[in-house]
Design brief:
Blueprint: E1 3-10, H1 14-21, H2 24-31, E2 36-38, E3 51-56, E4 69-79, E5 83-90, E6 99-106, E7 112-119, H3 125-130, H4 138-156
Antiparallel strand pairs: 1-7, 2-3, 3-4, 4-5, 5-6, 6-7
């Protein structure tokens, strides 16, 4: 499976949700793993080609010292209020072929349908052939959407 996605209805307007997903600092709260840190100078995303750096603190997994695994994300799709998607890669090399993103659809009554996805179809064929499980489990996307729902609804007073 090269693409997984999940959708959730959130009782908050699309502009509020888009502000959260287009801000690297928002990703820290949405992720909720406790291993993700936005670089201190991270700015909200504004266009295709923008980059934002995240530090992955991997000590909980025991494989790398805290803050030593840095990811440079490059925005590949950006439609204000509708979609933001990025490809991660190490800071010293280009993206490695997968894309994370959020797509929004405004609903009646100020709610928003939010789809979170991870797409590996752009990865190298040898890497795809070696994958025997989804690299990002559906449960991780569902948890992120639940965290996004809580943040967006808390900020709207819902």
């Amino acid at each position: 499976m090269t693409r997984i996605e999940t959708t959730r209805r959130i009782a908050a307007p699309a502009d509020r949700i888009f502000a959260l997903i287009s801000d690297p600092h928002g990703h820290v709260a949405i992720d909720g793993s406790g291993m993700l840190l936005a670089a201190p100078d991270a700015r909200p995303i504004g266009a295709v080609g923008d980059t934002f750096v995240m530090n992955m603190d991997r000590e909980p997994l025991g494989d790398l010292p805290m803050g030593k695994y840095t990811v440079k994300n490059t925005v590949v799709r950006f439609t204000p209020g509708v979609e933001v998607a990025w490809q991660p890669g190490a800071v010293d090399r280009s993206p490695i072929g997968h894309t994370y993103g959020y797509r929004l659809a405004a609903l009646d009554g100020g709610a928003t349908e939010v789809t979170s996805y991870c797409d590996w179809s752009g990865a190298h064929p040898k890497l795809l052939a070696a994958l025997t499980w989804p690299i990002v489990p559906l449960s991780a996307l569902e948890k992120s959407l639940e965290n996004l729902r809580r943040l967006a609804e808390d900020r709207s007073g819902a």
